Amino acid sequence: MIKVAICGALGRMGQTIGKMVDESDDLELVGGVDVKAGSTFGVEVFPSTEIEKFLEEKKPDVIVDFTIASAAVGNIRAASKHKVALVVGTTGFTPEQRSEINSMIEGNVPAVISSNFSVGVNIFWKLVREAAKRLGDYDIEVIEAHHHFKKDAPSGTANTIIDIIKQEVGDREEMYGRKGMVGERGNEIGVHVIRGGDIVGDHSVLFAGNNEVIELSHRASDRAVFAHGVLRSIRWVYGKSPAVYSMNDVLNL
Ligand SMILES: NC(=O)C1=CN([C@@H]2O[C@H](COP(=O)(O)OP(=O)(O)OC[C@H]3O[C@@H](n4cnc5c(N)ncnc54)[C@H](OP(=O)(O)O)[C@@H]3O)[C@@H](O)[C@H]2O)C=CC1
Ligand SMILES: O=C(O)C1=N[C@H](C(=O)O)C[C@H](O)C1
């Protein structure tokens, strides 16, 4: 049995992952950490101020983090110190936070970090790369939509899309929405963020040329798609050599 702990255990993703871990035969949910203490699926949730005590008492094999960027940095530091493998889905990191995370992990613990654990999105990213490779002279716009509770914008997945496009077409300015006399469209990637209701997670990329538009889209209708990828990652990462891994490694893409 792989002993699993969840940071952000009482949140939307924490609950979805906790349920799936609890129902699986080869994984054992040993507890969680959240802002406030509590319980989930019959195990104790410690307050985030007591993460060190939690790790010493519960000794998880893998820690899953779905919190917020500022909190995740501290949780990753604690996991690295205690040599616990990581699966990190939290988004909204600054470049500085990402490099701090990488240096905490490298040579210390194995960690899968992804802005989107859905298998479909990981294939979608491949399709976006392929299109960008061939349609670099088309106008490119990225659109994402999420529920009204989401704190970071644009989504981590949209940021990954923008990175992929730039890797293929070269650096471009990101244009976040447009208003007023915007003038002729420049060598930019338009980025549009929608927040509303209970939208789980929609991402589209438009490649617009003369007399034609190619639109690639992915729509998640249940958080279970992310949680399935998280469970695959937990099973994959346990026992691996210390390094930062992506879902490409987990899915062998
Ligand atoms: N990679 C992927 O596939 C996916 C990534 N995400 C990302 O996961 C993150 C969480 O999303 P979601 O579950 O919807 O958000 P929620 O707000 O529902 O859950 C986050 C939880 O973390 C808690 N939290 C805040 N600070 C700490 C801390 N220091 N230690 C422990 N827990 C803490 C929050 O408490 P409180 O509410 O009291 O602040 C909350 O319970 C986001 O960054 C989101 O973008 C989401 C879905 C898929
Ligand atoms: O906050 C969410 O809900 C989601 N966050 C991730 C992101 O920021 O890309 C993944 C997914 O779209 C859901």
UniProtKB/TrEMBL annotation:
Reaction catalysed by this enzyme: (S)-2,3,4,5-tetrahydrodipicolinate + NAD(+) + H2O = (2S,4S)-4-hydroxy-2,3,4,5-tetrahydrodipicolinate + NADH + H(+); (S)-2,3,4,5-tetrahydrodipicolinate + NADP(+) + H2O = (2S,4S)-4-hydroxy-2,3,4,5-tetrahydrodipicolinate + NADPH + H(+)
Molecular function per GO: 4-hydroxy-tetrahydrodipicolinate reductase; NAD binding; NADP binding; oxidoreductase activity, acting on CH or CH2 groups, NAD or NADP as acceptor
Enzyme superclass (EC): oxidoreductase
Localization per record: Cytoplasm
GO biological process entries: diaminopimelate biosynthetic process; lysine biosynthetic process via diaminopimelate
GO cellular component terms, semicolon-separated: cytoplasm
Keyword entries, A-Z: Amino-acid biosynthesis, Cytoplasm, Diaminopimelate biosynthesis, Lysine biosynthesis, NAD, NADP, Oxidoreductase
Known EC number: 1.17.1.8
Keyword Amino-acid biosynthesis applies: yes
Domain Dihydrodipicolinate reductase N-terminal: start-end pairs: 2-117
Pathway: Amino-acid biosynthesis; L-lysine biosynthesis via DAP pathway; (S)-tetrahydrodipicolinate from L-aspartate: step 4/4
Matches recorded under SUPFAM superfamilies: Glyceraldehyde-3-phosphate dehydrogenase-like, C-terminal domain (SSF55347), NAD(P)-binding Rossmann-fold domains (SSF51735)
Subunit description: Homotetramer.
Protein name listed in UniProt: 4-hydroxy-tetrahydrodipicolinate reductase
Source organism of this protein record: Methanolacinia petrolearia (strain DSM 11571 / OCM 486 / SEBR 4847)
